[in-house]
Amino acid sequence: GKRFDRVRLFGTIGYSITALISGIMLKYGFVSIFIMATVSLSTVALVSRTYPTGRKLKRSDEEIDRSSLPLQFYLLLLAGVASITIGAFGSTFLPVLTSERGFDVSSAGFAFSLMAFSEVPFLFFAEKVVERFGNTRLLVIGIFATGLRWFLTSMATSFPIFLLLQMLHGINYIVVYYSVMNYIHTRFEASKTTRALTIYWMSTTGLSYLLGSVLGGVLIRAFGIVRVYTATGITGMAIAIFFSLLFAALHKRTAFTNR
């Protein structure tokens, strides 16, 4: 079907547990991380072999829709790329920030674990939340929350406050990800869905993380990590306001939908 909240939920729980254990094991040296990764990936490989292999299907030309995707998709994609780029920067350099603040070496692991667990409440009620707010409004909320999180994180000098702020992750990436994915799966027929998903994943997993890590590293080297986190947070909130106004204007004048 078109529901993928439960699948994502179990992945989130697994990621959270792994991050928590990694943070604890890091105290015993980096070798322990490689050992844990080897055991985990070997287990995945063994378990995956128990699943039946489906036969490959070749679609006919009639089943492949080569018509252009709607403008709304590309606008949601652009907003998603901007948000995930900001999120990728913050997550990539979070261990560096914890070191800059003088927190314990395991603090990044605890932070990532808490970040993953914070997604669970949304995933339990994702369908109802989307129905209540709509995909575009939810996307804007996710972008603004991402900016707010990094802005506040840049000012956190206490580890407990730093950890609490990472709970905002529960309305960051997962909300942006889910709103765009839900739009694709509910608005497009199967003939267009694959192409839309390909463009989405290439843009976010590829472009966003590349920009977030590479450009972020350059900016941190030039201006310092705290300043860049602050500027990134402000930029994220400004982007959210811009897209909110843009979506509202398009909704009044065109067939642009909040759903």
TrEMBL record:
<keyword id="KW-0812">Transmembrane</keyword>
<dbReference type="InterPro" id="IPR036259">
    <property type="entry name" value="MFS_trans_sf"/>
</dbReference>
<keyword id="KW-0813">Transport</keyword>
<feature type="transmembrane region" description="Helical">
    <location>
        <begin position="161"/>
        <end position="180"/>
    </location>
</feature>
<dbReference type="GO" id="GO:0015528">
    <property type="term" value="F:lactose:proton symporter activity"/>
</dbReference>
<feature type="transmembrane region" description="Helical">
    <location>
        <begin position="108"/>
        <end position="126"/>
    </location>
</feature>
<feature type="transmembrane region" description="Helical">
    <location>
        <begin position="229"/>
        <end position="250"/>
    </location>
</feature>
<keyword id="KW-1133">Transmembrane helix</keyword>
<dbReference type="GO" id="GO:0030395">
    <property type="term" value="F:lactose binding"/>
</dbReference>
<keyword id="KW-1003">Cell membrane</keyword>
<dbReference type="GO" id="GO:0005886">
    <property type="term" value="C:plasma membrane"/>
</dbReference>
<feature type="transmembrane region" description="Helical">
    <location>
        <begin position="32"/>
        <end position="52"/>
    </location>
</feature>
<keyword id="KW-0997">Cell inner membrane</keyword>
<dbReference type="Pfam" id="PF12832">
    <property type="entry name" value="MFS_1_like"/>
</dbReference>
<feature type="transmembrane region" description="Helical">
    <location>
        <begin position="73"/>
        <end position="96"/>
    </location>
</feature>
<protein>
    <submittedName>
        <fullName>MFS transporter</fullName>
    </submittedName>
</protein>
<feature type="transmembrane region" description="Helical">
    <location>
        <begin position="7"/>
        <end position="26"/>
    </location>
</feature>
<dbReference type="InterPro" id="IPR020846">
    <property type="entry name" value="MFS_dom"/>
</dbReference>
<feature type="domain" description="Major facilitator superfamily (MFS) profile">
    <location>
        <begin position="68"/>
        <end position="259"/>
    </location>
</feature>
<dbReference type="InterPro" id="IPR024989">
    <property type="entry name" value="MFS_assoc_dom"/>
</dbReference>
<feature type="transmembrane region" description="Helical">
    <location>
        <begin position="200"/>
        <end position="223"/>
    </location>
</feature>
<feature type="transmembrane region" description="Helical">
    <location>
        <begin position="138"/>
        <end position="155"/>
    </location>
</feature>
<keyword id="KW-0472">Membrane</keyword>
